[in-house]
From TrEMBL:
<dbReference type="InterPro" id="IPR000719">
    <property type="entry name" value="Prot_kinase_dom"/>
</dbReference>
<dbReference type="InterPro" id="IPR050154">
    <property type="entry name" value="UbiB_kinase"/>
</dbReference>
<dbReference type="InterPro" id="IPR011009">
    <property type="entry name" value="Kinase-like_dom_sf"/>
</dbReference>
<dbReference type="InterPro" id="IPR004147">
    <property type="entry name" value="ABC1_dom"/>
</dbReference>
<dbReference type="GO" id="GO:0004672">
    <property type="term" value="F:protein kinase activity"/>
</dbReference>
<dbReference type="GO" id="GO:0005524">
    <property type="term" value="F:ATP binding"/>
</dbReference>
<dbReference type="Pfam" id="PF03109">
    <property type="entry name" value="ABC1"/>
</dbReference>
<feature type="domain" description="Protein kinase">
    <location>
        <begin position="291"/>
        <end position="653"/>
    </location>
</feature>
<comment type="similarity">
    <text>Belongs to the protein kinase superfamily. ADCK protein kinase family.</text>
</comment>
<protein>
    <submittedName>
        <fullName>AarF/UbiB family protein</fullName>
    </submittedName>
</protein>
Amino acid sequence: MTEQESKKIVEVNLPVLKKRTDSVLKGAGGFAVSTVKLPKAFWPVAQLLIRENNVSREELANSLDSLFDALYQHPLSEHSRSFTSYLRKYKLLPNEESTENLIRFLVKQVVARSPVEIPDVIVEEFWSFFQELISAPELKGLVELNLDIVRLVLRTYEPLLVELINKVKQIRKVNQIAVSDMMQKSQILRGDLRILKRQIKAIRYIKPFLQTDPKDFSAQAEIISKMVREFGPLFIKMAQVAAANADLLPEEIASELRVFQEDVDPMLPEDVMQAFMEVFGKSPQEIYFNFDIEKPLKSGSIGSVYLAKKPMIKNGVEVLVPVIVKVARHNLEREFQMGSLAIELMLMSSQYWAPHSKLLPFLSAMSEQIKEFTKGFEQELNFEDEAAIQRRFITRSQKSNVWHVPQLYFSSGRILEMEFLDDAMAIKQAINEHQGKNRNRFQRKVAENFLFTILEHLIIHQEFHGDLHPGNIMVDADAQLYLIDWGNAVDMNGKWALIWNYLTAVLAGDSDSLARVLIDMSTDPTANELRFDEIKKALDETLAKKQITPLDKRAIITLYREGQKGLHRRFQASLQLMSNTYQLGIVMQSDYLHLSRSIVAMAGTYLNMYDGVSKLTMAVDLLKDLSLFPANLIKDRVSLKGGEVRRMLSVGE
């Protein structure tokens, strides 16, 4: 190489080399400056810990948010994103291709295992939705993802951390009892870890479920049952909801789910004893006769029910009266919170296995929706709240001869004592007591009374039982209903207008009205109102894909031309559109979620009452009972008054 050529190379490369050197030095300098600034980011949190005054949850949350903002802005997070992209590019980590392959496998499994044939058009619509969802990937790095997970866990424990911090601040001022209480609070974390470990372990059953023969419903049912039982109360509650509308499921799976309506694993004797010591300071044997702590009458996700006898004064004489004693399980609140956290962690970690930026708001909204959904279940954890609901409906039931509610004798946070129904039994058992035509008549009478009860609750009282699955309904020989387990009630006050507006907006294809209704039903209407145009645009696209055209002044002609298929398509859209809220990042209020849950439970229970009866008979009965409700209500009230008059006359004689 000549000297002239060497000089030419140096002249060309020196600027490039200088530029790269400057970039490296600048990056190193930025990294060093950002690292030096990190201790300053920790200072607000440190100030909260060292100051004398107590800490509020809002202060702790704001300080932690500021700290994590600083961590996200550190150059290491940006380098992590580039490094993660490199690993995904060379398939050292799951990438977009692996995500699509994973979801294609899951879709294939769903189609193969469906008890009913899924039309190709539905599968094609799903893939169209999926391609839109992942069209613009902006992926997070591993460091950012781990920071997200750490912040999620800390946010879950913020109330506990605040309590512990404030206890530490007061440690010099408190006596030994308070110190002991602080230690008990610290033990919550250990207990939570055991719960969380068990729940995450239960999710392992998903793999063997997918490995079963798609048509081997017995094996699938067994796996589902094991997973639900191991996960605990939250999954048991969800199984009960599914069982209430299991008519579309294979019989093997439906049967396993129905078990969770009738009975689950009983409470441990030591847990029952602990509840009685907590409430009464006595064992149940000191309060009741024939209380067998190891043999509950029935067990559910919330607690166990026992049959015992208790001395009571009746007509001036002390007699032994059979009573039902309901005992709440220990640590239920933590079970539900950890269950929600386990599902959130699973969804969060799915960003690693299925990395797509469009999936992030979808999964985040789904995660928030699950937390909102569990709120309705958490209302059932305090028996004092349940007792208040039950007392309201006891008063209302005294005006009817069709439905009844057991009397309450005692209530506390973990123990309820109520009337024993010696002349009523579970619906299935009551129906099986009859044969032939008598069975058919009895079923239809029970269904008639059930529909009458629902309509009275909805129209007259504007409130109804939040979980009317078959396990919560008992029937006597005259087909009269006895409603039990009042842990949850749905209040319809203020909801009718929104529900009506939602249905009419979907049926009319009015995206403007539909967007406003969904925003009003969301947990954060103010923030979602700012996104109105974005939400409306997405709804326009969705309605167009579902071939739902807006109705104008010629609505009747349009509906006539579309025919029954068009009307069915519009009604189905009203059910499907809710799922789009995840894609839009909208989280629905728990009241509306549990309203839909309650409606599904009631519809499933009503259908089950017609088991073995023709669909035509059911349809005729439904139309007849709906139209005759006003007359039946008057008849029920008159017969009740007539009974009271006859009793008064008999007493006078």
